[in-house]
Amino acid sequence: MNPEEELNLRREVRATVFRLARAHREAAPGMSLAGEFAAVQARLAALGCPDPERTLCRWRMEDEAAFDLAALVHELVAARLPPVPARPFATVVMPPPASPPSHAHPAPSSTGIPGLADLLDDMLSQERRHRPPH
């Protein structure tokens, strides 16, 4: 089987599993994507996969576990974040920056949402600060 085609099918299965898991979490348990899984299984067979049913089943189980892990991390991080204040923060209107020269590359955004690793590092450092000395 062509590795690139297999990778594309793998991604398709992952996207389908995640979409199905999100639908179940959002109270749409009747949603079924069996047709999409059957189409992937047929394409696996057409590509010469020795056991397309087992391959699809293994991929689905791995992706369901990955989604559950991501949901658990999300819940744990959300539980550790400080509560949102009752009234919103005041907004400050900033004048637009001067336009960069046409040959300049855009600077990477430093105001984006912090990554999971940054949040976990911050949480661990706060725990260390609040622990009494031994």
Describe this structure in words.
With 134 residues, the protein is mainly alpha-helical. The chain has a domain at 3-62. The chain contains four helices and no strands. Helix 1 runs antiparallel to helix 2 (34-46) and helix 2 packs across helix 3 (52-80).
Radius of gyration: 23 Å
**How far is the N terminus from the C terminus?**
59 Å
Low-confidence stretches: none
Question: What is the number of helices?
Answer: 4
Give the total of beta strands: 0
Taken from the alpha-carbon principal axes, the silhouette is elongated
What would a concise description of this structure say?
The protein has 134 residues and is mainly α. It has four helices and no strands.
Give the tags.
single chain, 134 residues, mainly alpha, 4 helices, 60% helix
